[in-house]
Amino acid sequence: MNPMHETLDRTGLVAGLETAGIAWRELDEVERNTYSVDGVAPRVICWPASYLEVAKALAVADRLGLAVSPRGAGTMLGLGNPPRAVDLIVSTERLSQVIDYAPANLTVTAEAGITLSALQRCLAEGGQYLPLDPPHRDQATLGGIIATNTSGPRRFGFGSARDLVIGSTAATTSGTVTKAGGRVVKNVAGYDLNKLYIGSLGTLVVVVELTFKVAPLPTSQQTVIGRFARREQLGQVVQQIIRSPLMPTAVEVLNAAALERLGESDLPELGGGYLLATLGTAPGRAVLRQRDALTKLYQAAGAGAIAVLADQDSEHFWGKVADWPVQREAPGGIRVKVAVPIARVPEAIQALETQTNKLDARAAIGGRAGSGVLYAAWSIAETAGDSPLVPIVQVLSQLRQTCREWGGSLVVEACPTALKGKIDVWGDVGSALPVMRRLKAALDPNLIMNPGRFVGGI
Amino acid sequence: MAVAQVDARQLVRKLEAALGVENVLWRDYDLRLYEYDGSIDKARPQVVVFPTSTAQVAEVVRLCNEAKVPLTARGAGTGLSGGSIPLDGGVLMVFSRLNHILEVDLENLRAVVEPGVVNLYLSQAIAGTGLHFVPDPSSQKACTIGGNVGENSGGPHTLLYGVTTNHVTGLEFVTSSGEVIETGGKALDAPGYDLTGLIVGSEGTFGVVTRVIVRLSPLAEAVKTVLAVFDRIEDASATVSGVIAAGIVPSAIEMMDQLSIQAVEAAVHAGYPTDAAAVLLIEIDSLQEGIEDLLGSITKICEENRAREIRTAKTAKERNLLWLGRKGAFGAMGRVSPDFYVMDGCVPRDKLPEVLTRIEAISQKYGLRIANVFHAGDGNLHPLVLFDSEHPGEEDKVREMGYEILAVCADVGGALTGEHGIGFEKREMMGLTFNDDDLNWMNLVKQAMDPTGLLNPGKIFPTPGKCWMPRPRRAAAVGW
């Protein structure tokens, strides 16, 4: 526990926020529940209206040694180990403007509190989009997406946040507002702190503004779906696709349980097989070539129930695909993200199936077959006590061990808080941990930013 | 911080013991070869070492720490910002004996290489697999992948494919205290801070990279290279904006102005018309189907902007010749000037016409010619100031012009460097785009990564006291 937490300096905090002119409120019992993080309930929430106000709020907390939890829309608030303390929630809700959008530059700068879908609406007016498609696009904020490094199917073609963010502004625990990168697409001036912030889960700074590279909206899109009975076929066809010049935008696999989460009645029955979905967005006639060539590869690999979804149907489908890992998430649900070298995808699917079968769980499994990133989600039976958690811990540990042997990782993205006491949701990050701790100590010396949530107790 | 002679002798003996006599140079005659890079500044190291393993790199780092001697890493020395110049002397680490391609892993689209591998050799080694390593700086025949990682190098094809950082997924890295750590890997999304992303582009100021895991990408099925010739440079600039605005992202859009064209023609005879005000070299990567449509759209935009001639390379040989001209442009300047100074700034694409006009005004003001040859699609300018170092005072004038040009880039919302790095060359200009708070924050990261400040000292940050004073690190309330 943070020693400060027991003696929350409410008077000091309130006085500091008041002096800085920052809107704040003390939370009542119900709200404390709403805003609680893994059962740790905050006392105060504030809504800074400017970058400097965010920095001032952090400075107040830093001076008093109070734990800060930055908050966007709260869609990924379950990610991380239980916090050592949460005293003050800093909401980015009032920072939701697009700052600069010049279509001729293919870049956009926006405040961190804007939702992804609001940004996409703005970009669509310029015939462009941000090719980042994480779950919860209607609620998730840019700041939250960056802090949690969430991404979606289109990462195969466009990469993840680290490939799209070119500049950021951050409020720091020193009470300053600092920039890194800029608003141009090529920039090697100064350290690339954008990379440091992406996925840092609010443990270093509060990112208040972001600049992204954007892309022209495709004029047409074609999705080829097909059923593969065996994992080996799947692995084979994925290899052919990713090493070909077809350059699809997404290469996604889903098992039957994952497909059910899409809630689309007209998709094929999979039985024990897998759905492979590949998205083509190449300009002009090239997109039809993508469709036809992918269809041929599917056929040659023995796919059944091959179908094509075009344009709006395709767009609708991929929206569902982006969201399935977080759909129907019961409070007792578990969601893991497994990252492995690409060629291990079939084995990783097998390992996920075998291990979750031991729990009698019907896990939804799928993800970025072309990138080596898979998700598995299942619910656990409501049983009192800790006993059902023991086999889950065993299964997760076994899976994690396997992933590590392959040079990958397993992160528990969502699970009951009770389980977090028994397993580190991040796992061992290896030899780099001391360097990560030095960075944390340098940028947040009083360890007030989301303490305890991140890797290695950071 | 230059080490006293007596200590240097001791250090040399220890380095020779650790690396072998054949991997350590210390005679002044030998050291002279390592006092420069591709920029105009020089500084001589006291010792040059050629480690042959990660363990040797770690040992050199430890010995430098022990002797409190600066350590600077150097790839091929093709850098253009003084990044590998050992400003305070000390030990210069050269990677020409740590230059193996350790693994080509086609099914995972990765390769594992040592830092001394020459950029072009990797793509050559995997020729025939349908894959390649994307970053292709113009110096790719000489520059090393370790150097590319240090500088986060670009090249002409970044417009569609991104820069070095987008193609590196993991590193083996020796920290400032000599620990060997691994960051990232062949798999994506390793938990924890993205140290790989932080280290790429840190110009050797954090530690020493000893192994690089790179992404391999499929080669495009069809490539078309177009040369568009313009009588007015404004028309060429407008074409660049026009292509982007039409929703077309070529793999490269390069611009050369008249002076560059004339130099290139004198040197390599690429077939550019020497009376043109500017040429654009536009390359599109696509599937076979659709490439003619793209070519048609681009041709139309060029015509709308009064291109007087549009030439498409018909064979691989013609394409290579067009690129030879572009990639050889810096070297060709020797044909039109005894010396030249390469600048590197990046501006928003829609500011290109304004910026080119303002650069021309700077050229007029100082009476020195400026050739422009650059990555127009990215807004990444490379003004080349032509001068003669035999003329007294001209070198100072060139530096002043460089400052003014970058001030223009900063003024329009651009960056001080798109791909060459800050290094020594531009450290005093950092204040043009970063304020004290920004620099102090970056300096905290530097102090965390290199508390003794022995790694590549004097780079990136302005001289303390001149226009910026680093704040001491705040004491941590809780230690780890």
Describe the 3D structure.
The complex is a heterodimer of chains A (458) and B (480). Chain A is an alpha+beta fold. Chain A has 4 domains: 5-93 and 440-457, 2-Layer Sandwich (Uridine Diphospho-n-acetylenolpyruvylglucosamine Reductase, domain 3); 98-216, Uridine Diphospho-n-acetylenolpyruvylglucosamine Reductase, domain 3; 222-324, 2-Layer Sandwich (Alpha-Beta Plaits); 329-427, Alpha-Beta Plaits, CATH 3.30.70.2740. Chain A is 33% helix and 22% strand. Chain A has helices spanning 10-20, 29-34, 51-64, 116-125, 142-148, 155-158, 161-164, 193-197, 231-242, 256-262, 286-300, 311-323, 345-357, 389-405, 417-420, 433-443, and strands at 23-26, 44-47, 68-71, 88-91, 98-102, 107-111, 128-129, 165-171, 177-181, 206-213, 215-216, 222-228, 250-255, 274-280, 304-310, 333-339, 364-368, 373-379, 409-414. In chain A, strands 15-12-14-13-17-18-16-19 form an 8-stranded antiparallel beta sheet. A 5-stranded antiparallel beta sheet of chain A has the order 5-6-10-8-9. In chain A, helix 1 packs antiparallel against helix 3, helix 9 runs antiparallel to helix 13 (345-357) and helix 13 runs antiparallel to helix 14 (389-405). The model of chain A is unreliable at 1-6 (pLDDT under 50). Chain B has 480 residues and is of the alpha+beta class. Chain B has 4 domains: 5-94, Uridine Diphospho-n-acetylenolpyruvylglucosamine Reductase, domain 2; 101-218, Uridine Diphospho-n-acetylenolpyruvylglucosamine Reductase, domain 3 (2-Layer Sandwich); 220-329, Alpha-Beta Plaits (2-Layer Sandwich); 337-446, 2-Layer Sandwich (Alpha-Beta Plaits), CATH 3.30.70. Chain B is built from 15 helices and 20 strands. Chain B has helices at residues 5-19, 28-31, 54-67, 119-125, 145-151, 158-161, 195-199, 233-245, 258-268, 288-304, 316-327, 329-332, 352-366, 394-411, 436-449; strands at 24-25, 47-49, 71-74, 91-94, 101-105, 110-113, 131-132, 168-175, 180-184, 207-215, 217-218, 222-230, 252-257, 278-286, 309-312, 339-342, 345-346, 370-374, 380-381, 383-387. In chain B, strand 8 and strand 9 (180-184) form a beta hairpin. In chain B, helix 8 (233-245) packs across helix 10 (288-304). Chain B starts with a helix and ends in a 31-residue tail after the last helix. The model of chain B is unreliable at 476-480 (pLDDT under 50). Classes of the chains: A alpha+beta (458), B alpha+beta (480). At the A-B interface, strand 9, helix 8, strand 11, helix 11 and helix 16 of A face strand 9, helix 7, helix 8, helix 10 and helix 15 of B.
